[in-house]
Design brief:
The chain folds into four domains: 154 residues, Pyruvate-ferredoxin Oxidoreductase, domain 3; 179 residues, Thiamin diphosphate (ThDP)-binding fold, Pyr/PP domains (Rossmann fold, 3-Layer(aba) Sandwich), CATH 3.40.50; 69 residues, no CATH class; 110 residues, 3-Layer(aba) Sandwich (Rossmann fold). By secondary structure, it is of the alpha/beta class. It is globular and about 85 Å long. Strand 2 and strand 3 form a beta hairpin. Helix 7 crosses helix 8 and helix 17 packs across helix 19. The protein is built from 19 helices and 19 strands.
């Protein structure tokens, strides 16, 4: 049993606040839900719409079918979205939402009461009793707004039209960026720098709020070049550090990425992808930066790329990123995208990983050599001011003490030392997530935010007798043979699903593992896949 509602309106009308208040209320009422949004790159005007799926079972993607309810805050919603209303569905016209706004202004003297009232109306539609709706209010004033919304639903005879049971245990609400920031805090991150850029900006918001109560420093830099260099400086001084940006901002960080590679300074960089080139579609989604980040920075040096596909995986991989960056003294990248960064869903509180990470700060003596040549390629790492050790570094090639050198033999040995970490990194690779039957004749390969969409679409196909499994890669580099060996992929039809035009991950699988795909399912119009869309596409390939 589920209920799908779309709320459309102009930027600045408050559709976003309706989504926020509604998802907060659903969390308090112990509902399973998934919410995401489609918004234009402007502060006011333009048509935006917010999509919320409420169910009596866990849901983590857009269904993609017909809407049970469409709410119009502007005149564009009706021609654009009413045709997608299911038979017997509810349409709150612009006149009806204006009636709620007028009543709110008359009764409370506040036009903004209308948005909260709409939340009460939607809750009434899914069968929430008025006294339960009141429990979600943070103040007596809001309780009145919600009650007004319920009264309108009762007046229009739509209360309880699409009842959904509240079946979540103890839900906690996250969007993708909040999960990444929370995982970073668990990983011991104590310094974050960035310049605001959609869709990564809310990562910075989260840290600016956290800095009020936690030992975390947030710095809004003057640009992305300054941001990554600030993070590198903080890491050199002894704190785990991160920079957060999107593709256009990351383009400015290239020199800093190379500096991290040469100086072997640990750093984590979060990159929330959006369509390019250049400004592209700044508020839409894409997975088009994989190759860019994989090859970012001049020269050759090791790195790790994570691309989580669920809230819990994001928390865990963000935590892990800081541990790997520290131990291997490398840059680690966390790739998300606009769809995942802005989507809101719940997870059970008991499932959230809470194990914290911490940086070791060894005190070494005056004989310390920052870049000592070692068998495993990992030199001893300490920080200025902790002991008699002098911590020297330079962006030029250097000797074991950190002094500049142009000796060709030493240059080769230093390059080999740095690149030697790759083999050890492979032994610690995060294994992909497999779902479905091992004996299935077809497998869907995916990475990043498509995980839960593919799993639900695959489950629907399997239920129809078209056996298909899903293999999702949360670590997209380095790739190892051990990551795919258990799943007998050679004998299966292999379909790679990704949000870009050139099949970047499919190309990486072929290059790194010699694993060719039979079909690439690509979407690059700025929108995410829905379960229905992917299900229909896969069905046509496999039926």
């Amino acid at each position: 049993m589920e209920f799908n509602v779309l709320i459309g309106g102009e930027g600045g009308q408050g559709a976003f606040s309706v989504e926020m208040e509604l998802t907060e209320a659903l969390t308090r009422l112990n509902y399973h839900f998934f919410a995401t949004k489609h918004y234009m790159s402007r502060i006011r005007g333009g048509h935006n719409f917010h999509m919320i799926r409420v169910a009596d079972h866990p849901v983590h993607a857009l269904n993609g079918g017909k809407w049970e309810m469409v709410v119009a805050l502007d005149d564009e919603t009706e021609p654009l979205h009413k045709p997608d209303l299911r038979e017997g569905g509810l349409f709150l016209s612009r006149a009806m939402t204006k009636e709620i706004a007028d009543e709110g202004k008359k009764r409370f003297g506040e036009i903004r009461s209308a948005n909260t009232a709409l939340v009460g109306c939607v809750l009434a539609v899914i069968g929430v009793a008025p006294e339960k709706i009141a429990e979600t209010a943070e103040s007596g004033k809001k309780e009145g707004y919600l009650k007004m919304g319920y009264d309108f639903a009762a007046r229009w005879n739509i209360a309880g039209a699409f009842p959904v049971s509240a079946a979540a245990g103890c839900p906690v609400r996250f969007d993708g960026n909040q999960a990444l920031a929370f995982g970073a805090l668990l990983g011991g991150c104590r310094f974050v720098a960035g310049y605001p850029m959609t869709p990564a900006t809310s990562i910075l918001h989260y840290f600016s709020e956290a800095a009020r109560e936690l030992p975390v420093h947030f710095e809004q830099a003057e640009d992305e070049i300054a941001a990554i260099n600030m993070a590198l400086g903080a890491s050199y001084a002894g704190v785990r550090s991160m920079a957060a940006t999107s593709g256009g901002g990351f383009a400015l960080m290239q020199e800093g990425v190379s500096l991290a590679g040469m100086t072997e300074t640990p750093i984590v960089v979060a990159v929330a992808q959006r369509p390019g080139p250049a400004t592209g579609l700044p508020t839409r989604t894409e997975q088009g930066d994989l190759n860019f980040i994989l090859h970012a920075g001049h020269g050759e040096f090791p790195r790790v790329l994570f691309a989580p596909g669920s809230i819990l995986e994001t928390i865990e991989l963000a935590r892990r990123a800081f541990d790997l960056a520290d131990r291997f003294q490398i840059p680690v990248f966390l790739l998300t995208d606009q769809y995942f960064a802005d989507s809101v869903q719940v997870v059970e509180e008991e499932d959230i990983p809470l194990e914290p990470g911490a940086r070791e700060c060894p005190a070494l003596d005056a004989a310390y050599k920052r870049y000592r040549l070692t068998e495993d390629g990992i030199s001893p790492l300490t920080f200025p001011g902790l002991s008699d050790a002098r911590v020297k570094l330079d962006s030029d090639e250097h000797d074991e003490e950190g002094k500049i050198t142009e000796d060709p033999d030493l240059r080769k040995r230093m390059v080999d030392k740095r690149l030697g970490k790759i083999e050890r990194l492979k032994t610690e690779a995060v294994m992909p997530t497999f779902s479905g039957a091992l004996a299935s004749a077809a497998v869907i390969l995916c990475w990043g935010s498509n995980r839960l969409i593919a799993e639900e679409a695959g489950g629907r196909l399997t239920a129809e007798g078209i056996a298909v499994s899903v293999l999702h890669f949360g670590q997209v580099y380095p790739l190892t043979a051990a990551m795919v060996a258990p799943y007998r992929l050679e004998g299966k039809k292999r379909i790679c699903v990704e949000n870009n035009a050139t099949g970047q991950f499919a190309g990486l699988l072929k290059r790194e593992l010699g694993l060719a795909v039979d079909h690439s399912v690509l979407k690059y119009d700025g929108d995410c896949f829905t379960v229905e869309e992917l299900y229909q596409t896969l069905r046509s390939l496999l039926a």
